[in-house]
Amino acid sequence: MQLPALIPATLIKRYKRFLADVRLPSGxxxxxxxxxxxxxxxxAMPGAAVWLxxxxxxxxxxxxxxxxxxxDAGDMVCIYSAKANQLVxxxxxxxxIEALLGYESISSEVKYxxxxxxxxxxxxxxxxxxxxxxxxxTLLLDAGLGVFPDAVSxxxxxxxxxxxxxxxxxxxxxxxxxxxxTGIDCVAPADSIDRKYADTFREALxxxxxxxxxxxxxxxxxxxxxxxxxxxxxxxxxx
Length: 239
Prior knowledge:
By secondary structure, the protein is an alpha+beta fold. The protein has two domains: 72 residues, CATH 2.40.50.580; 156 residues, Trna Endonuclease, Chain: A, domain 1, CATH 3.40.1350. It contains three helices and 15 strands. A six-stranded antiparallel beta sheet has the order 3-2-1-4-5-6, with no helix packed on it. A six-stranded mixed beta sheet has the order 7-8-9-12-14-15. A three-stranded mixed beta sheet has the order 10-11-13. Strand 8 and strand 9 form a beta hairpin. Helix 2 packs parallel to helix 3. It is globular and about 60 Å long.
């Protein structure tokens, strides 16, 4: 995925979930859109180097969007959660996800399930449908462990229940952790943050939902999914 020409800046603070103040190299302070609903723990430290895209749409109140940040440890993170879906779709279309080869079509945001959901990606071929729920992982704990979610997520648990139901109906269902943090080496559910989600995650595994994790290569010019990462069923088993 090629990124637009990004503008460097320095983070002053993130607030009201969707807003951040940054300082441009000229010294000007501007307010930008923050496309991330999570806690962004470790990814929104004042003084961090960030990169912005700029919209040409004159109707936007905030013309700039926060895209990337460099952590204190020097890792690159894409904080734009919706980019995860695009990265996974691109990787599947380019045959980079071995376990998801051989499908004839791919659709996005398709309505499904009994809880009024939309599946991120639906793969189809003559004999099978594969429902893929994509989650962006940016929370790094100790020893390279990335966890999801970074805040309590009733919506995340709902999506797992929908995937379980798809397996029970005879379909293939996949939870895909798109790791948008270059310092993360493995992934687990965040028991310490949302135990209900973690328990539902383990129920999904037992029901036959498949779980994959891939880490993105991230630069200010481009991003792509390249490396498969191990997934553990509990963060507690690693400490």
